[in-house]
C-alpha cells in the first residue's frame, strides 16, 4: 500500500466527520430536530455501504442478486457522472 493512498483515505474520513459536525451545527442554528445531521449521516452510511459491497464483489464474496444489481446500477451512474464532469 502506498502512503499517499492511506493518507487520502484518512483525510476523507476526517472531512466526513467535519461535515457531520457542520450539519449538527446547522440543525442547532435552525432549531430543527437533527434532520440535517441525520440526513448527512445516512448519506455517508449509504456511500460506505456501496463501497463495501463493491469491494466484496471484487474479492469474489457471493452477494445476493438484488444487491449486485443495485451496486451495478449505482456504480454505473457514478461513473457516468464522473465522465460528464471531466
Q: What does it look like?
A:
The longest helix has 28 residues, at 3-30. This protein has one domain (3-85). It is built from three helices and no strands. It is mainly alpha-helical and 86 residues long. Helix 1 packs antiparallel against helix 2 (35-58).
Note the quaternary state here. Answer: single chain
Average pLDDT, all residues: 84
Termini separation comes to 27 Å
Helix content: over 70%
Keyphrases for this structure?
86 residues; single chain; 3 helices; 0% strand
Short account of what is shown:
This protein has 86 residues and is an all-alpha fold.
Topology:
Blueprint: H1 3-30, H2 35-58, H3 65-85
Helix pairs in contact: 1-2, 2-3
Amino acid at each position: 500500500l502506498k502512503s499517499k493512498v492511506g493518507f487520502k483515505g484518512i483525510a476523507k474520513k476526517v472531512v466526513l466527520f467535519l461535515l457531520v459536525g457542520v450539519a449538527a451545527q446547522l440543525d442547532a442554528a435552525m432549531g430543527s430536530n437533527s434532520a440535517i445531521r441525520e440526513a448527512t449521516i445516512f448519506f455517508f452510511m449509504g456511500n460506505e455501504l456501496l463501497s463495501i459491497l463493491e469491494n466484496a464483489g471484487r474479492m469474489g464474496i457471493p452477494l445476493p442478486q438484488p444487491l449486485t444489481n443495485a451496486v451495478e446500477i449505482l456504480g454505473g451512474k457514478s461513473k457516468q457522472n464522473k465522465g460528464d464532469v471531466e
